[in-house]
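Record type: ASSEMBLY
Status: queued
Input:
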Amino acid sequence: MMNELLWIALFGAILFTCSGLLTIWAHFKKKDLLRNMGLYAVTLLGPITLGVCWKAQMQLMEADGVIWARLMSGDASIVWAIGSVGLIAGAGLALGALSLLERAKGIYVGALAFALLWVVIFLHPTPHYVPMPAWLDKLIWFALLVGGAAFCLTIYMKYRSYLKLFQLPVIIAAGLFPILALAYPAALVQVSRPLDLSQLPPDQQIKQMGCLSCHSMKGEGYPIPGEGLESVASRKEDVVRAFLADPSAENALKFGIRTNPTGDMAGVRLRDSEVDILTEALKSLFEVQPPSKLGPGWDHVEAILVEKTCLACHTYAGEGAPQGGIGGPLENASAFQEETLVEWLKKPSAENAVALKIRETPMGAMEIFALPEEQAKEAAAWLKSLAQE
Ligand code: HEC
Ligand code: HEC
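Status: finished
Output:
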């Protein structure tokens, strides 16, 4: 599950914590130079680590969607967020401490950290779940940063003389907050183990797995890009199960889930047991339709079989016309070429039965059950798929 950037982020977080602790120790030992170096390290490591971590997250989403989702909104999301808070707050406090201690230098470092943070945000790809264009996302961050810096500077200029009072608490806080960055490794240890879903109620199973990082459910979660999970109410159970087992863009198209799939769920690779549990959870939360007889993705064909009463003269999976019917089991048809089947279904006349080598002495009983081209193609594709089973 670990990518290189994630290792770098972890290393950064640990170094960040150590720098914080060094700050406190050096302050009480009256080693001013060492203390200031600790504060500089905290100020600069914060934004760098955060930036690397953001980038690592994006890679993780594509490579290991379940881990990503559990960190973003699942069982490990609070711990993960505490790590980010530690980095942001730690860096900010260290910067504050430096400005109080070493005015001019502190402000230089502040400008440098500010520039770093801006580069980080600029490079940071706007995640797909942020409901705004990338340029607006970056503009908002820019405004927040510049606004924040201007605000701090104003306070500093106005209340310079009183701020001395805060020196000690700010240094201590700047040393302690970085400990929170250890939540990063803690969260990663947590997600490295599969989640035990069996003890949880259905809605918690979905939430703790982090599915709501990309879906909404009863108004909760991010509806981009997966939209509301409520839509499963119109799906058949076997379609839901088959899609969860392999949520590729290709399958989303094949099973009729989206006409324009994003493929964003393709990185979400669930274990077989998780597919079963989550299918059951969705079934109990939304009224998922019973499984189709023909298997996932063949809803149209199933409708055709019903509408044209094909099973009055044929059988499928042993069901349908008594004693195999006059047309015989549909499974036999998989022996023909797909093109032959399309031609036949479009015009199932006695002459065609001979011409296409379907029967030597045909009955011609199927003639009035001809299918239009589109339906003939779909039905032929299904008949061919029966050979693989
Ligand atoms: C990284 C984003 C992402 C995550 C995480 C994610 N999904 Fe999806 N999901 C999608 C997208 C996008 C689609 C629509 C298919 C497409 O566009 O490729 C989808 C489709 C679905 C569908 C079919 C919806 C329908 O209309 O029938 C189900 C069911 C589903 N997801 C369940 C889950 C579950 C359960 C989880 C948690 C284990 C999960 N998803 C996690 C992005 C995600
Ligand atoms: C009234 C009875 C009847 C109905 C309804 C019927 N068929 Fe047939 N079907 C036949 C007969 C009989 C044959 C053999 C050709 C002949 O004797 O004309 C046949 C042959 C076929 C074949 C050729 C391959 C094989 O197994 O021998 C396919 C494929 C087929 N039918 C599919 C369908 C489909 C799909 C439907 C529904 C759209 C359908 N049939 C509806 C009677 C029927």
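Annotation: The chain has a mean pLDDT of 89.
Annotation: The chain has three domains: 4-191, 205-285, 299-388.
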